[in-house]
From TrEMBL:
One of its GO terms (molecular function) is protein C-terminal S-isoprenylcysteine carboxyl O-methyltransferase activity. It comes from Aegilops tauschii subsp. strangulata. It catalyses: [protein]-C-terminal S-[(2E,6E)-farnesyl]-L-cysteine + S-adenosyl-L-methionine = [protein]-C-terminal S-[(2E,6E)-farnesyl]-L-cysteine methyl ester + S-adenosyl-L-homocysteine. Divalent metal cations. Probably Zn(2+). The keyword Membrane applies. It is found in: Endoplasmic reticulum membrane; Membrane. The chain crosses the membrane at residues 12-35. One of its GO terms (cellular component) is endoplasmic reticulum membrane. This is Protein-S-isoprenylcysteine O-methyltransferase.
Amino acid sequence: FMRHPGYSGFLLWAVGTQVMLCNPVSTVVFALVLWRFFARRIPYEEFFLRQFFGSQYEEYARKVHSGLPFIN
């Protein structure tokens, strides 16, 4: 369903806890900081996955979304 379910779950949990605490400033800050971290981390990880698995991973990545908004 998605390539990075752990990252997606952590993002939902971290932002969701701030929503539950009714903390709008932290909600926005958590979302931005975590999204920036994942936007940098995922390409780094996928570079090595592409090296290891080659064309199989390329095909998989084309078919399956990363699971995080605006990150392919």
